[in-house]
Amino acid sequence: MQALINTIRSLPHARMWFACLGINLLIGVFYSVALIAPASSVKSAWLPGKTTHGHYQIELDCNACHDPSKSEDSMNASDVMQDACIRCHGDQLKDVDTHPAKKFNDPTNAELLATLDAQNCLSCHAEHVPHQTLSMGLTMPADYCWHCHKEISDSRPSHRGMAFDSCATAGCHNYHDNSALYEKFLDDHFGQPDHLSLATVPQRDTTSGLSGSEISNTLWPMPASKINDADHPKSMQVDTTLLRDWAETSHAAAGVQCSHCHLSDSNGQESVTWSNHVPMETCGQCHERQVDTFIEGKHGMRLAVGLSPMTPAQARLPMNHDAAHRELNCNACHNDHRFDTQFAATDACLQCHADDHSLAHVNSPHGELWRDEVLQKHVSGTGVSCATCHMPRLTDNGGVWVNHDQSANLRPNEKMAREVCLNCHGLEYALSALADEDLVRNGFDAEPSKRIESVQMARKWFLDRATKRRKKP
């Protein structure tokens, strides 16, 4: 830059003036093009600051958050952003939010709103302000709980002497989602052993999560297919390894033929043109809930807003360099034709992830359990893979299906206690382990260094209440 300035200064006055004008015009053109250009690296020139860990993947699609046409209310900037937050996170908070906006509609809370506008997401979660952004995208000072709950020690003597910024420690409170921490839940799990005698995760139901209730009777009313039944065009040269892989899968067992995937267009509709590339929408015809939850997580959120798939090169966590340009879609983990769920559960993750937590899994007690299950030394469900914790098996409508939003139970991480850890561990042990940052980083290779006391505190609170009721005349 200094060399350019010196060169301009050495020019005659008129030429120097035109050179400065030309440079300013180029700068103006660059920023004008960046403003109207589709999502690309050029658009990053307009970013006012670093985006949070949860949103940086979609930061180049400014309209994902800043499009006024998507706002249902008035068109000021705050309303537009508030609507953007609700569009993405509203469903996740619908049934679990302990501080919903409607809670503060009561006039008696007006004084609280004067301290903290709890009806607006932007009060606590601002973007492009890295100098004040804490974990979970929080941009409020760490004492925000204290301003409304500073008298808590009067009603809860157990809270006396606690630090003002200790409320959100794992195992205590979470502002939005207390589903694993509310007192009745804590008390119900009081006294559990650290390691349960029956430690196993729910058995996955291969038909659960499908668009139809029974794949054999609703979606594909055909008998199982064998390798010689493959209906690919006869003129096409097909690798016999691919055919053998397909023939050994549950797809073939359910009569899912080559044409069902390769003769569908990008909208999942039947097509007459064969395509070697199978779009995610085609997978979604049968695996709707899996696709829907995938695009809600960090792996698929770019696809949800119309951007290209995420690649490991765009990640902020350490990744394997040789995987930098892999695109994250269904086939990234469920490799072509074999769709090996055992491979997808851990090996697929380690193709990309190279952070301490991921690499530590292999030699951890969890990793040993997973190897024993793969080697059939123990029954199915006793192993702990990456997917066991980060893609939990959920039970609803009588079936067990896999939630593909791999970041859902990390918002906050104590959500994992309820959905995953309690299959094998007591609640106190699980919350203590999740609160131990060193233990998380090392893949839970040891016992928690410190015990979280919230379970005991909840039990004592219920016992004290019962004692007071008995003393009343």
Automatic annotation (TrEMBL):
Phosphoprotein in keyword set: no
Record keywords: Calcium, Electron transport, Heme, Iron, Membrane, Metal-binding, Oxidoreductase, Signal, Transmembrane, Transmembrane helix, Transport
Required cofactor(s): heme c
Entry keyword annotation includes Signal: yes
Main location: other
Residue stretches making up the Tetrahaem cytochrome domain: 55-150, 251-353
Top EC class of this enzyme: oxidoreductase
Subcellular locations according to the entry: Cell envelope
Catalytic activity, EC: 1.7.2.2
Sequence intervals crossing the membrane: 16-37
Catalyzed chemical reaction(s): 6 Fe(III)-[cytochrome c] + NH4(+) + 2 H2O = 6 Fe(II)-[cytochrome c] + nitrite + 8 H(+)
PANTHER family assigned: CYTOCHROME C-552 (PTHR30633:SF0), CYTOCHROME C-552 RESPIRATORY NITRITE REDUCTASE (PTHR30633)
Family: Belongs to the cytochrome c-552 family.
Protein name: nitrite reductase (cytochrome; ammonia-forming)
